[in-house]
Specification:
By secondary structure, the protein is an alpha+beta fold. The chain is built from 27 helices and 9 strands.
């Protein structure tokens, strides 16, 4: 498809056919989407009108290859909508989303097309495992999108799915806007007592960027953490806590009605397709398989986590009382006194680690881990256009073969949503001419930025976040499949977190840290004593952290198993769901669900439990590395061969058993977290 005036519709002659961000303008997106949808419709029509008997190649593989230009445009636009958004892009998204949903529905609800897919599914023989997976996935995606419904029910499904896509967009925009609407300007440094100077430098830089004196705090993660973990001023902690935990709740960006409508529509979709609730609809295609298995895992881990968490809360409370605090700890007190107890108990805190985690050295360390384990090498390139000056790009090689391009975007800005994520501008696949098309992988994060006189120094939490997202990147970069829709991270949600969470385990290994963790001022290697303290404090408040994560999973499951007609009050229902895992007093006026983007705008609906599910997998998998050696090449090669390279080309449990030699056990997780 060529259009001389619109770079999104041209064949990209850029290095590695990367997106020409320097040429793409806001006015290009809408016309490009409309033209690409037209082109994709023609490709679908060709599949439908093919007079030959339906086969895997002329139907299933052809569907996988269709819409390449539309997919390319979508990857650029929606990734930038998250990482470098503008009000204009948000408006375009509101217009484009219904068009894309309509196009998707036109495919999945087309009776003739589904008949062809059905015929292949019923009669295909001699397929490879990968081809069978693609066939099964394609067939199920049609059925789960209403292909087998009556004409009347198809029309209902079409309306509901279109509305759901718009609700998700609006929900995400509201959270971003609510986040950006808050700032706390402080001119009296006495109010900031306790906050480390390195954290204050970031707040000072934020103020200067706005032309203000003093310090500016916002709702980005580094800013919130600085106050809640270190500020002696309890009222300041409370103010920041309340601002963060009331986003899009009872303000002008209120998401309550969107939550209710989303849940009603999801429930209706599930019932229309023959499921008791939305969770059953989603879980049928996951490793967990059903709600019962999810709740068994949640309750089993809660059984071990809650007693430990209660002891931890008692210890933090006792220590707070020893420092003169009276009464019961509130939610804006726990992180503050936990940090003080950690410092007291271990003679150690996060600030002592940060000088050893200069961002540039951490990048070297993480890249070096990928080199030592998987034989990857990374070369910075200036040839490739980027969407923001902060973004850096690397060519990634394995045995001199280009595996991927890797985009890195580290620091917060108003145009970027909070959190950290891995995404792709292009998925790995083999094209129609048999050429292996390598992926364009992107990591987007919100780490503490550098300031005048201070480089970007990461907390231990930011180090593990980088390693988590880099684990996802490895899954994308090392993919070796034929079909884009099952390549890389295109696997069930409760399996996709295995590669990310597994890589976090190296963060406390001396062999890994000794390769990069040098003090940015003195050049001193991180002392063994600090490494041992890191390992010791890794499990500090592990029970509390486990309960917190489990509470999110319980909330997600409640929203998607409850009859929405019985949900009258979002906050009240939320509290009931999370109650079994709660430890601290509830706070009036706060609500998590109105800013829980993972499940209302991020694809994790009825799937948030997957983080815990994958923790069982990653702890069990790392126990093999611990047994054989954390840099053991044989284990690393097996991991690439059986998991990282395979994407969704086989069932997750089959892949895991091929790597581990057996199904996973929960024991390694309980032992690692000190819960048993």
């Amino acid at each position: 498809m060529k259009n001389l005036d619109n770079p999104l519709l041209q064949a990209w002659s850029t290095p590695y056919q990367t997106p020409p961000f320097d040429k793409i303008k806001i006015e290009h997106y809408l016309p490009a989407f409309k033209e690409a949808i037209k082109e994709a419709r023609k490709e679908i029509e060709e599949i439908k009108s093919n007079p030959d008997e339906p086969t895997f190649e002329n139907t299933i593989a052809a569907l996988d290859r269709s819409g390449e230009c539309l997919n390319r445009i979508s990857n650029v636009f929606f990734n930038l909508l998250e990482a470098d958004s503008t009000p204009e892009m948000q408006r375009i998204a509101q217009e484009v989303s219904p068009l894309l949903t309509e196009f998707s529905n036109d495919i999945k609800l087309d009776g003739l097309l589904f008949e062809k897919v059905y015929q292949v599914h019923e009669h295909a023989e001699g397929l490879t495992t990968e081809q069978q997976m693609l066939l099964d996935d394609t067939y199920r995606s049609f059925v789960n999108s209403g292909a087998a419904l009556s004409q009347y029910d198809k029309a209902q499904y079409r309306k509901m799915s279109s509305r759901l896509s718009l609700l998700a967009l609006t929900y995400g925009e509201n959270v971003l806007n609510a986040t950006n609407a808050f700032s706390k300007h402080v001119t009296d440094k006495a109010l900031l007592a306790g906050i480390p100077e390195s954290r204050l430098a970031v707040a000072r830089a934020k103020a200067e960027a706005k032309g203000l004196e003093g310090w500016l705090f916002d709702l980005s993660q580094p800013s919130v953490t600085a106050v809640l973990s270190y500020a002696d001023n309890r009222e300041l902690r409370k103010e920041i806590f309340m601002a963060y935990n009331t986003k899009a709740y009872k303000d002008k960006f209120d998401n309550q009605e969107i939550v209710k409508e989303t849940l009603k529509l999801r429930h209706k979709v599930a019932r229309l397709l023959g499921y008791a609730n939305f969770a059953e609809y989603v879980l049928k295609e996951r490793m967990a398989a059903n709600v019962e298995n999810v709740m068994h895992l949640e309750n089993e881990l809660l059984k071990y986590s809650m007693p430990v968490a209660q002891r931890e809360l008692a210890q933090v409370t006792e220590y707070a009382h020893s420092l003169g605090f009276e009464g019961e700890l509130c939610r804006w007190d726990f992180a503050y006194y936990s940090e003080k107890l950690k410092t007291h108990r271990f003679q150690f805190n996060d600030e002592m680690l940060k000088p050893y985690f200069k961002l540039e050295k951490v990048i070297e360390g993480v890249f070096g881990l990928a080199t030592d384990l998987f034989g990857l090498s990374f070369q910075p390139t200036q040839q490739v256009s980027v969407y923001h000056p902060d973004v850096k790009v690397f060519e990634v090689y394995r045995a001199e073969r280009l595996m991927s391009l890797l985009y890195l975007d580290f620091h917060p800005r108003d145009s970027k949503r909070g959190g950290a994520w891995m995404t792709e501008f292009r998925e790995q696949h083999v094209d129609a001419d048999g050429r292996d098309v390598r992926p364009l992988v992107s990591l987007v994060m919100n780490f503490t930025p550098s300031t005048p006189g201070h480089p970007s120094l990461l907390t231990f939490g930011e180090l593990t976040t980088f390693m988590h997202e880099f684990g996802h990147a490895l899954h994308g970069m090392l993919s070796e499949v034929h079909y884009s829709s099952i390549s890389g991270t295109s696997v069930p949600r409760d399996f996709v977190e295995l590669p990310s969470q597994l890589l976090e385990n190296w963060a406390v290994e001396k062999e890994f840290l000794s390769k990069f963790a040098y003090h940015y001022q003195t050049g001193e290697l991180i002392p063994d004593e600090l490494v041992q303290k890191m390992k010791a404090f890794r499990n500090f408040n592990a029970g509390y952290a486990s309960c917190r994560q489990l509470s999110f999973g319980l909330l997600d499951m409640m929203w998607h198993t409850t009859d929405p007609s019985k949900i009258k009050d979002v906050q009240e229902t939320e509290r009931s769901a999370m109650a079994p895992a709660e430890l601290l007093p509830l706070v009036d006026g706060t609500c998590m669900s109105t800013a829980f983007t993972h499940i209302f705008a991020g694809g994790y609906a009825a799937g948030y439990y997957g983080y815990k599910w994958a923790e069982v997998l990653d702890a069990d998998a790392f126990s093999l590395f611990k047994e054989k050696g954390v840099y053991n090449k044989e284990v690393a090669d097996s991991y690439v061969e059986n998991i990282l390279s395979k994407g969704g080309s086989d069932k997750p449990m089959n892949l895991y058993v091929k790597f581990r030699g057996r199904e996973p056990k929960v024991d390694a997780l309980l032992e690692r977290e000190g819960l048993k």
